[in-house]
Write a structure and sequence with these properties.
The complex is a heterodimer of chains A (182) and B (187). Chain A has 182 residues and is an all-alpha fold. Chain A is built from six helices and one strand; from the N terminus they run ααααααβ. Chain A has one domain. Chain A is 71% helix and 1% strand. In chain A, helix 3 runs antiparallel to helix 6. The model of chain A has no long low-confidence stretch (mean pLDDT 87). Chain B has two domains: 32 residues; 148 residues, Glutaredoxin, CATH 3.40.30.10. In chain B, strands 2-1-5-4-3-7-8 form a seven-stranded mixed β-sheet, with helices on one face. Chain B is an alpha/beta fold and 187 residues long. Classes of the chains: A mainly alpha (182), B alpha/beta (187). The interface between A and B is large, with 53 and 47 residues. Strand 1 of chain A pairs antiparallel with strand 6 of chain B.
Chain lengths: 182, 187
């Protein structure tokens, strides 16, 4: 059981790092997705607000992913990741119900898949992993290690986010030159 | 020294994540080096005859028909309000319209998203250019509009002079000048 919990925790952290990093090069696209869920009367004030929200969500994903990966003993980070995953599941459900086929930008430009059954199942799978990651690990000392290990994990987290951003940038350039798939 | 089990698991999770990203990048590199560029399949071939399109006008829903080749140059933009590059294209066309650069040229914006999505885009709400929704995908099959934004410039004789992805003002202007200047020369 401990292995499963730790694997779920690491998987959620890596997914958050990848999705947060991949959103950064395509904030305009992600902001357009946020606007889908805003009420009609708020649309006139939205372009700037949606962009700020896009930056905040991507940053929150990166922070939660990095802290969760590097300091696994901090239990509040599990709850933060669970809250983010709940939000993604709600958005994926609403997207499935109301905006099928519209761009999701859940992983920035890494995927061109729109809202649909696959994105909903993916969000639910991430939610399940985040819930498993919240189960307390016994014995707890397994999650405490030397400062050097924390720093190595932090460097790996930065590398993961940078790699996701680089991959998303490359795919975004291709999408912009070829047209986003309708 | 014994490595904590969490570090082993985290290492494998990171390795798997980086592996997936590497595969994505490798596929992208293969596309670029192999010349299998998606844009080659986007838009009608330059020099081909543009097909007529029937569409439902937005927002009133009346059925309209546009027939390229009736003597007036035509710019057709395949756009969607959920696509940021399309918003930029619509804004660029709006700027050109205000500057009088589209005089003598018809412009039609064709969307595939339902008209209700226009509310999420300030550029689409602000534009006075005609917007329509093709009555069927078969109507636009000849335009090979598999992605957005796609801009197609058709001269007065109904021949496609330029087609491809364009959103920034200089790009859009080059499409317009390709057909407007030619029609002016013909006059």
């Amino acid at each position: 059981m401990t292995g499963l919990v730790l694997a779920a925790k690491a998987a959620v952290a890596v997914l958050l790092l990848a999705s947060g990093g991949a959103k950064l090069p395509d904030l305009a696209g992600f902001a357009a997705t946020i606007r889908l869920f805003a009420p009609a009367r708020a649309q006139t004030r939205l372009p700037a607000a949606a962009r700020h929200a896009a930056v905040m969500i991507a940053t929150a994903e990166l922070l939660a992913g990095a802290v969760s990966l590097c300091w696994p003993a901090l239990r509040w980070v599990n709850l933060a990741a669970l809250a983010l995953s709940c939000g993604f599941a709600v958005v994926a459900s609403l997207g499935y119900a109301r905006h099928q086929g519209r761009p999701c930008h859940c992983f920035g430009a890494l995927t061109r898949r729109g809202f649909g059954l696959v994105s909903l199942l993916r969000a639910l799978a991430i939610l399940a992993l985040a819930a498993i990651a919240c189960i307390p690990v016994r014995p707890a000392p397994q999650l405490h290690f030397a400062l050097g290990f924390h720093l190595v994990l932090l460097a790996a987290a930065a590398l993961m986010a940078a790699a996701a951003a680089a991959a998303a940038s490359a795919l975004l350039v291709q999408a912009e030159s070829a047209g986003a798939v309708a | 020294m014994r490595v904590p089990i969490y570090l082993e698991i985290a290492q494998w999770a990171l390795l798997l994540g980086l592996g997936v990203l590497l595969v994505l990048l490798y596929r992208q590199l293969g596309r670029l080096l192999g010349g299998r560029h998606d844009s080659a399949e986007l838009g009608p071939p330059v020099g081909s005859k543009a097909m007529p399109i029937r569409y439902a006008s937005v927002p009133n829903g009346s059925h309209e028909r546009i027939s390229p080749g009736d003597g007036q140059p035509l710019l057709i933009g395949f756009v969607d309000p959920t696509c940021p590059a399309c918003e930029q294209l619509v804004a660029s066309l709006g700027e050109m319209q205000v500057a009088g650069e589209l005089a003598g040229c018809r412009v039609l914006l064709l969307i595939s998203d339902p008209p209700g999505y226009l509310r999420i885009s300030a550029a689409f709400q602000a534009t006075s250019l005609p917007i329509g929704r093709p009555l069927s995908t078969a109507e636009v099959a000849g335009y090979r509009a598999s992605g957005t934004p796609l801009l197609v410039a058709v001269d007065g004789g109904g021949t496609v002079r330029a087609a491809g992805v364009a959103s920034k003002l200089p790009e859009v202007r080059s499409y317009a000048t390709a057909i407007v200047s030619e029609s002016e020369v013909a006059r």
